[in-house]
Amino acid sequence: MAVILIIETSTEVCSVALTVDGKLIDLAESKEGQNHARQVTVFAEELMARNNIKPEGLAAVAVSKGPGSYTGLRIGVSTAKGICYARNIPLIAIGTLEAMTMHVMHNRTNYNIPENKPTLFCPMIDARRMEVYSMLFDDDGSVLSPISATIVVESFMAEELTQKQVVFFGNGSEKCRTVLTSPNALFISHLDASAKYMCELAWQLYNKKQFEDVAYFEPFYLKDFIATVSKKNLPG
Asked: What pLDDT, on a 0 to 100 scale, did the predictor assign at position 34?
């Protein structure tokens, strides 16, 4: 039995989960924002106490590696690294956008996503103003466009939206509804990053022994990227 503590602090949501062999057994989270430093360790201690799990019973700690909030990611990763270092257990890093996408792809019926049409998946994390951190995934989960910081304008995904339905989700998607008006643009409301969406990926990486160097691992802040209007779909 492998117990993994999962920490997600890349957005305004502070979320901590406990999994056993990849199955979610408990969750604590808050959407208050700006309280990650105070909440994350409290949530972790509460979950372990009410499930009678001692620190030495943890097999690993998984943490969101971003992209997302600089401060949030720093707090989450620092907490995860501290636990791993103290207990000498592995650190697992999971992409925020990948975890959200896997959840949506595996729950299409729950989100009323038609299965008889070619579909692309575009998770979005709010940056500022009309900027988002996003990726694009094919129907089988393959990455079509890697993580980028982009200003969303009417031409964003124009070519893709003429050919396939594109599902937009994450806290950056809400502000794009009025810009992306194609009938092929589908929006999932109020789908926030959460530790509960990371369970399966954490279990997969644990079994593959894909661990991070606790001393040197840093989250993917995307802070060195300069958000630009996508040139791919701009008129010639």
From this structure: 80
